[in-house]
Amino acid sequence: MAKFKDTIDLYDDAGKLLKSGVALDKISPLVNPATRKLINLTKRTIAVNLGGIENNLRIGKVGKGQVLGRELDLDIAGNKDAIIAKIKDMVQVTEDDDTNIREFGGGKLILVEAPSIRLEAAATYDAAITSVAAAATYAIVEQFNIGAFDAGMVKAAVWGTYPHTMDLGGANVASVLSIPQNNEGVGYALRNIPVNHVVMMTNKNAMEGAALASTFEQAGMFEMGNAIGPFERAQLLAYAYQGLNANNMVYDLVKANGATGTIGTTVQSLVERAIEDKVITPGKKGSYFQFYDTKDPMLWNAYAAAGTMAATMVNCGAGRFAQAVSSTLLYFNDLLEHETGLPGCDYGRVMGTAVGFSFFSHSIYGGGGPGVFNGNHVVTRHAAGVAIPCVVAAAALDAGTQMFSPESTSKIYADTYGKVDVFNQPIQQIAQGV
Q1: pLDDT tens across 58-100, in order?
Q2: According to CATH, what is the number of the domain 45-182?
Q3: Which CATH superfamily is domain 7-31+190-410+419-432 in?
Q4: Can 365 be counted among the known catalytic residues?
Q5: Around 273, how many Cα atoms within 13 Å sit in the side-chain half-sphere?
Q6: Are 72 and 155 in contact (CB under 8 A)?
Q7: How far is CA 406 from CA 33, 369, 412, 419, in A?
Q8: Which of 3, 4, 27, 2 is nearest to 245 (CA)?
Q9: Would you list the domain boundaries of the chain?
Q10: C-alpha pair distances (Å), 98 with each of 40, 389, 416
Q11: 3-state SS, residue 109
């Protein structure tokens, strides 16, 4: 029996119907098998740059520095099969567990799925990156019979600056998850994934990127206790309509406004759709203003979230710039509130987030482009999972205007995670799982 009365139709990024009449609870991160697989792989999958280790050792570059006179010329590429076999042998717990290693770029990059049992026997997801990093270090040391004096160089080439600093700076192992010490509070791990990482994992596809970011963000909402009781429906509706293109709403709004539209015309289109679907109805009338009412504020919020996403794609897509996303988040919802008298996306929190985001991303402060932010950041954490997906869509549509481009910050994620279907096509995978 379905938990909620709501049903939705799921469409892909090309407006094609994937599944109709889907019960809302079937897309829940707690229920949908594709989403659970995505989160499971997010926690236990580690990228190892074997080519980077070889190149860095050749010039003595380890961590964030270079140590002249300590160079090591090791043919890691030529021995990659033996090294990969050693890594797998050390990381796996039993021969039939779910350890898996994928090769990319002729073996210069590998993606290691640490066995689930390592994470089950651990307090945090650290067990994945630590086991893989340790195994990669020892595999190289053993393969080339490295002595005690040089073993530290190999370790530093793999682990980076750890434990001197806690962020593994300059490491050649990478997870999409940051270390727990960098999470800003309870339940923020899945929200602490930079926008540019998601952009590259989905090969700069705006709608797939938005879906992946929305999945991470909304799973984070469940993890931090924001989707308990009646609030679960609120989060799932926002996830469905904004992230998974439920009822083809985002696609339809972008299609209607993409050629000549603006943020303002997208507001108009959304309000017309909400009236047509009877989500809002005309209420009291002022001297020059028509107020609207809704009997379902949660569903209205989901419509507002979808409209915010569509406006982002229309505006940032037209200019091919990511920087406009913060002002789009602000003014779409400002116009929407003035047009209807109803609250904007996330009941005003998207507008509040956008004000600080504008300042920190490219205004007076000018700290960095939108692509380096995440849902864990002090500026962008406040909206309940519905702001960061829009930032991902904007960065995917960007044509190179960011100071920190996705290619410069996150290429390894495109070359590894971006080759895995559950990451690069989340819309289709989640629809298959309902």
Answers
A1: 999 998 899 999 999 999 999 999 999 999 999 999 999 999 9
A2: 3.30.70.470
A3: Methyl-coenzyme M reductase, alpha/beta subunit, C-terminal (1.20.840.10)
A4: yes
A5: 23
A6: no
A7: 29, 10, 10, 16
A8: 27
A9: 7-31+190-410+419-432, 45-182
A10: 11, 31, 18
A11: strand
CA distance linking residue 426 with residue 201, whole number of Å? 11
Distance (Å, rounded) from C-alpha 391 to C-alpha 393?
5
Q: Residue 211's closest CA among 256, 182, 250, 179?
A: 250
Question: Phi, psi at residue 45, to the nearest 5°?
Answer: -105, 130
Supply 317's token pair: 């897509």
* Residue whose pair of structure tokens reads 């910050």 in the numeric block: 409
Q: Which pLDDT band holds residue 369 (cuts at 50, 70, 90)?
A: confident
CA distance 261 to 253: 10
pLDDT in tens, 261-314: 999 999 999 999 999 999 999 999 988 889 999 999 999 999 999 999 999 999
Q: Give the residue carrying structure tokens 């044509």.
A: 399
Task: Retrieve residue 345's tokens.
Answer: 């996306």
Pick the catalytic residue from 239, 365, 413, 417.
365
Q: Round to whole Å and give the CA distance between 311 and 318.
A: 10
Task: Report the distance separating Cα 116 and Cα 130, nearest Å.
Answer: 14
